[in-house]
Amino acid sequence: MTRDLVVRARKGDHDAFAELAGAAISRLDATAWLMLRDTDRATDAVQNALVRAWRDLPTLRDPDRFDAWLHRLVVRACIDEIRRFKRRRFDVDIADLSDSPSSVDAVSGIADRDQLERGFSRLEPEERAVIVLHHYLDLPLPEVAATLGIPLGTTKSRLYRGLKQMRAALDADARPGPDIREGRPA
Amino acid sequence: MNRSDGFDRHVSEWLHADAEHRVPDHLGAVLRRTRTERQRPAWSSLERWLPVDTTFRPGLFSASSRRLVLAALVLVALLALVLVAVGSRQQRLPAPFGPARNGVLLASADGDIFRIDPTTGQHTSLIGGSQFDFGPLFSRDGTKFSFLRGAPTDCGKSDCGLILVVANADGTGVQALTQGLPALDSVDWSPDGRQIAILSEAPTFNGHVIDVVNVDGTGMRTLDVGRPAHEITWLPSAANEIVFRGEQLNATDPPPGIFAVRSDGTGLRQISTTPATSANDYHTIALSPDGTLVAYRDDGDPGGFQIHVMDLQTKAARILPGPRGQLGPVFSPDSRLVVYLRGLPNDLYQLVVAPADGSTSGTAVGPTGPLGPDGPTINNYFWSPDGTAVLANYDADKVARSVPIDGSQPTTLIHGELAFPGYQRLAP
Question: Does the model's pTM come out above 0.90?
Answer without folding.
Answer: no
